[in-house]
Specification:
By secondary structure, the chain is an alpha+beta fold. It contains nine helices and twelve strands. The strands form five sheets. The protein has a four-stranded mixed beta sheet with strand order 3-6-7-8. The longest helix is centred in the middle third of the chain and has 16 residues, at 120-135.
């Protein structure tokens, strides 16, 4: 099968993961169901908390078009004790396809796990060569040092909780349009005050006037959603709040 066909297959609708991750596998209670619109099934079963945190980065990254969990098992040449040739099998945690069409395979391995295996980086180098030579793709290992940088991870988690949902109120569309009409850069707070729709309201049957819902800021939610789409930018190196500055589309 041609390289392009193999890569198209692992991102196609109906493609099934090579590994089935059940409840509590690997570490008790650490298997996580991660909902995402970047895979055909709408959900990825992360085998660890580290992988789930890694998915936050990818799901909020406008440059990532598609995700495929445990996409395929490859056979590659390795060595036994650094000398005797031997074939090994490998199933990566994820394959990601960028909007430019490039594909990267990723494993999520904690630093402790890496240090506990003296052969780890030799195997890593073998896999890098295999994926590049056989598929024309990159292969990378991510651990806490890249996944759990703060405040970036907390910001991405906050952004992700405001992601678009099918049941969102129609007023969010007005909030997004208000942001598009604003001269940027500006703070979320300033945009909210100018937009005059910073909070949602409900109209109870027994009341004559709508009641504002405290703590719900439509502009804040809209900014988070638009940042995930690349329409606006916020500084992920600082904790996001109402005084965060909103910049024009992704650079």
């Amino acid at each position: 099968m041609r390289k392009a066909s193999i890569l198209d297959t692992i991102f196609s609708n109906g493609h099934q993961p090579e590994t089935l991750v059940g409840r509590g596998m690997y570490h008790l209670g650490q298997a996580v169901s991660f909902p995402t619109q970047k895979t055909w099934s709408g959900i990825i079963r992360a085998r660890s908390l580290l992988m789930a945190d890694g998915l936050l980065h990818l799901d909020t990254d406008v440059g990532v078009a598609q995700l495929s969990a445990y996409p395929m098992t490859v056979s590659y040449w390795s060595t036994r004790d650094g000398k005797t040739p031997v074939k090994r099998l490998h199933t990566p945690d994820l394959a990601i396809r960028m909007i430019d069409g490039s594909v990267t395979f990723i494993d999520y391995v904690t630093l402790n796990e890496q240090q506990a295996k003296p052969y780890f980086w030799r195997r890593h180098a073998e896999r890098v060569r295999h994926y590049q030579n056989e598929l024309g793709c990159a292969f990378a290992v991510h651990d806490e040092r890249s996944v759990r940088i703060e405040p970036r991870l907390s910001n991405l988690r906050l952004m992700w909780t405001h992601r678009s949902r099918p049941t969102e109120p129609p007023s969010l569309a007005h909030a997004r349009e208000a942001i598009r009409m604003t001269s940027l850069p500006s703070t979320i707070r300033a945009i909210s005050e100018m937009a005059m729709l910073s909070r949602q309201a409900v109209h109870w049957e027994e009341d004559d006037e709508p009641v504002l819902l405290e703590g719900v800021d439509l502009i804040f939610t809209a900014v988070m959603q638009m940042a995930m789409l690349g329409e606006v930018r916020v500084d992920l190196g600082k904790r996001i709040n109402l005084d965060s500055i909103v910049y024009g589309g992704a650079a």
